[in-house]
Design a protein that fits this description.
Elements (H helix, E strand, L loop, with lengths): L7 H9 L8 H13 L7 E4 L5 H13 L4 E5 L7 E3 L5 E7 L2 E5 L7 H8 L2 H4 L3 H11 L6 E5 L3
Parallel strand pairs: 1-2, 2-6
Antiparallel strand pairs: 3-4, 4-5
């Protein structure tokens, strides 16, 4: 829970410190501020592209603060078996949802070094990104506010 006696940026860093991902804290602070400063508007929050839940945790924290708001997170949430190494050594993914196949990183592939450093280690403990997303959201006690959808946006 956010405490107004302490710097919000420091609290955001604490919220996301154990979640894998690449969102810089300044962008997370901006998400927090945008969500909080527009709390007088009706409606819920929709996040397209959620990965492991860093930004979803921040948006969920906003939803908890303002009340009567949910965060709907839409992502392909790829599983370990969805990734393949291309002939040039880079990586792409292909996710099938309800008999539809969606390809990611096919035009702009993930280089081998960043894949092995940042993505592959996630799959050493988890079979899929939805699994770590769900765990991350539960650790923050946001599961009633942050709802994932394994879908194509």
């Amino acid at each position: 829970m956010i405490d107004i006696k302490y710097p919000i940026v420091s609290q955001i860093e604490e919220i996301v410190k154990d979640i894998p991902g690449w969102s810089p804290v300044d962008q997370l602070y901006t998400l927090f501020a945008m969500g909080y400063l527009t709390s007088d508007l009706e409606g819920d929050i929709v996040e397209i592209g959620s990965w492991c839940g860093i930004s979803a945790s921040v948006l969920g924290t906003v939803a908890r603060l303002i009340g009567n708001t949910k965060v709907y997170c839409i992502d392909l949430f790829p599983e370990k078996t969805d990734w393949k190494q291309n002939q040039d050594g880079t990586y792409s993914m292909s996710v099938t949802i309800e008999n539809e196949t969606y390809v990611g990183y096919d035009q702009q592939t993930v280089w081998k070094e960043p894949f092995e450093r940042d993505i592959a280690p996630i799959y050493e403990k988890y079979q899929g990104i939805l699994e770590i997303f769900t765990e991350s959201i539960a650790k923050k006690q946001l599961q009633s506010l942050v709802i994932p959808y394994k879908k194509f946006s």
